[in-house]
Amino acid sequence: MSAKKPYKKYRIRFNKPIPPPAEMDRHKNFKGVMTDYREVLTNIHRKPLYKNPKLFFGLVMLILIGWLVFEAVEEEELGRIEPETADSLLINLHGQGIDIPFHSVEISADSGGVIFGESDLKIVFPDSAFQYAGKTVSGKKVKIRYRVMYKATEFLIAGIKLNFPRAFDTTRILSPACIIEIVPESGESEIQIGNRKTVQILLGLPEKQATNPDLKIYNISDDKMSWLETGIVIGQLIPEAGKLPVDPLMKITNSDSLFAIGFAIRRWGIYNCGVVME
Amino acid sequence: MQQKTLTTEQILAELKLVEAARADPQAFGVLYEKYYRQIFTFVYKRTGEEEVAGDLTSQVFLKAMLALPKFRFKGVPFSAWLYRIASNEVSQFHRETGRSRTISIDRPGMCRVQSLTEAKTEDPEEGKEEFLVILSETIDELNEEEVSLLELRYFEERPFAEVAFILGITENNAKVKTYRLLGRMKTRMISLKKGNRK
């Protein structure tokens, strides 16, 4: 018999029989209790992470490596994004239909030739200087298109990227005093300077600056889209100065093997640290 | 009928079983077999559900096994220690589930309380229904510890030492609290009885 239920706090059961022993024993399970006991005991005795030096050290290393990778990726991302932003500005300007015009001269592929340009520019091509698809170009005329730029606005209009690699994977924008771009062509194809062939580029400079050690040569890789230092400017007085016998001529050459091998690179630049070439 | 007190020999024999279980957990099976039904009954009376009582009883024995290295003999039987764990498990169960606490009252228990509160009618059978209603209303106003005191001492007839051990209080404190409780209940029941007659 149960009491009526106006009471909420407790449920009062009067004279309710307890389950018979057989019914109680139905719930008896010492094996289950033992299993739970062993399981709990295993978890209790499991060594905490901070007390396990190997695991703890491993985890710290993992976090450290993860952090370094994250930093490196982020660095790379930053390095990639910033110059591209600057480049896209240059390319946009260049893409407006405005450009710095090229001068065009034809020379013999077999015997080479010399090009005289403004500002005492002299470009000397040796014989059999060109190659196309790995083979030396011969028996043909080669059209040399070239242009010389001195001002920042000219570089911008020409759409020439000015990325300059620095140590520790950082970049800066190159500020050249002069860029000479040379594009050799045969027929409709753009050709390359052959392996181990040296093209000499001569520029007129005041004598006092001709031996400036800060004057360096850079070229730009179409593949890498970055400026690479390839050599220093060698100042040399040339008696047969041609049109300007009074002023010395600057002979610019490159003895670095990369210069010749890397002539897939068609653009040339001269970086002059503060020296104004006129 | 359940034996309420143990002799010194029985307590010592029980301690040997405890020592054996400490050395080998598998030996705890003997204590499990010995006290399983008592603990089940204790829990069942407070939950009123067989399945719940089965689960909680298993939990009680699991916790007892885990706490066995800390067990110290304090003059009460090992079963009192188990009841203490069971009492905590039951309280925790009600706290977590929010279910109403069950209080199981049998006729002898009700008569004991009736005689102590002196709220008897001239014919006990005749006033049984009325007393049960009054008792139920009075109990509903008690807190958890007071209900436990009432259950352990008068519905289950446990000695004060054991009641005190299960509730984690001193024996004297248990006595004082119980007598105060009975006094309050008596006053309340008389008041309720008068109200019902009106």
List the topology elements:
The complex is a heterodimer of chains A (278) and B (198).
Chain A (H helix, E strand, L loop, with lengths): L9 E5 L6 H5 L4 H16 L7 H42 L8 E6 L4 E4 L5 E4 L4 E3 L2 E2 L4 E9 L2 H7 L4 E3 L5 E3 L4 E9 L2 E2 L1 E2 L6 E5 L11 E6 L4 E7 L16 E4 L4 H5 L5 E5 L7
Antiparallel strand pairs in A: 2-7, 3-4, 4-13, 5-6, 5-12, 7-10, 8-9, 10-11, 10-17, 13-16, 14-15, 14-17
Helix pairs in contact in A: 3-4
Chain B lengths: L7 H16 L4 H20 L2 H18 L10 H20 L3 E5 L1 H11 L6 H16 L4 H12 L4 H8 L3 H27 L1
Helix pairs in contact in B: 1-2, 2-3, 2-4, 3-4, 4-8, 6-9, 7-9, 8-9
What does this protein look like?
The complex is a heterodimer of chains A (278) and B (198). Chain A is built from 5 helices and 17 strands. Chain A has helices at 21-25, 30-45, 53-94, 152-158, 257-261; strands at residues 10-14, 103-108, 113-116, 122-125, 130-132, 135-136, 141-149, 163-165, 171-173, 178-186, 189-190, 192-193, 200-204, 216-221, 226-232, 249-252, 267-271. In chain A, strands 2, 7, 10, 11, 14, 15 and 17 form a 7-stranded antiparallel beta sheet that branches. Chain A is rod-shaped and about 120 Å long. With 198 residues, chain B is an all-alpha fold. Chain B has helices at 8-23, 28-47, 50-67, 78-97, 107-117, 124-139, 144-155, 160-167, 171-197; one strand at 101-105. Chain B is elongated and about 60 Å long. The mean pLDDT of chain B is 86. Chain A binds chain B through residues 3-4, 6-16, 18-19, 21, 23-30, 32-34, 36-37, 40-41, and chain B through 25-26, 29, 32-33, 36-37, 40-41, 44-45, 48, 50-51, 53-55, 57-58, 61-62, 65-66, 100-107, 110, 132-133, 136-137, 139-140, 147. Strand 1 of chain A pairs parallel with strand 1 (101-105) of chain B.
